[in-house]
Amino acid sequence: MARKESQRQERFRKRVGVSRHDPAYYELRTRTGRPMSKEQRKATLKAERMAKHQYLEQASLGITHYITIFLVCSLLGLVGEEIWMWHSQGLTQSRVGVVWGPFSPLYGFGGLMFAIVLWNFRDSKWYEILLVSMGAGAAIEQATGMCMEFFWHAQSWTYLGLPDAITQWVCWRSIVLWAVLGVIFTKVVLPEFVWFIGEPSSKTQAVLVGVLVAFITIDLLATAYCFYRMEQRALGIPPQNAVDVYVDSHFNNDFIEDRFQNLVVGSQLAPNA
C-alpha cells in the first residue's frame, strides 16, 4: 500500500513539474516504510487538487490533445451508435465513416469542436455551456449532412418524419443530447483528459502523435476519394490514372455498400415512420 502511494506521489510530482533537486520534492515525499495517516492523505489530496486546478488554469490544448480527442470520440461515438441501433431497432449494422479503422468522424469532429469552443467555458455556469453545446451540436450535424449531400450525394441519417425534426439533419432530441453531452464533456471529461495527458515530454510521444495525424489524414482523404470515384463510375467515367485503377479494384461499389451499411448514395433516405 505504501509503495503504491509512493509511486502515485512520484507520478504526481512529474505532472506538476517538481524536480528531485527542488526542495519542494522532499516536502512531497512519503516514507515508504510507514503508511500515511488519514490527515496526511487528506492533505495530499488537497494539494493535488490545488496543483491540478493551477495546471488547468494555464494549460492550453495542443495537437496531442486534439488528435486523441478526435480518435477517442470517433470510436466511442461509433460504439454508442451501434449499441443504440441494436437496442432501438434490433439491427447490427456497420456505421463506420472511414475506409480503415473503427471510427465515425462525425463524433470525432464533434469532440474537436466541443474541445475548441468549450475549453474556455469550463468554469462557466452549466446553463451557459448547455446553450453553447446546443448550437455547436446542431451546427455539426447540419454542416456534415449538407457537405455529404453536396459533395457526394450521400446520406447516412435523416430526421424527416419525426415530429421534432427541424431540418433533415437536425431535430430537437438530438440538440438536447448534444447539449447534455457538452455539459458532461466540458465539466467532467475534458479537464480530466487534459490533466491525464499532460504536456508531451518525449520524442516517442511526438512520433506517435505524428503517426496518428498522418494515419487519420490519409484515412479521411482516401475515404473522400473512394466516394469521388464511386460518383465518377456512376457517370461512366473510366479511371484516369493508376490511383483510380487501384481504388476501382479495391474500393468498388460492393466494398462501399458493405462497409458503409447505413449510407445511401444518389437517392434519399426514407423518412422515419
From TrEMBL:
InterPro entries: CmpB_TMEM229. Keywords: Membrane, Transmembrane, Transmembrane helix. The lineage of its organism: Bacteria, Bacillati, Actinomycetota, Coriobacteriia, Coriobacteriales. The chain crosses the membrane at residues 59-79, 99-121, 175-198, 204-228. The keyword Transferase does not apply. This is ABC-transporter type IV. It comes from Leptogranulimonas caecicola.
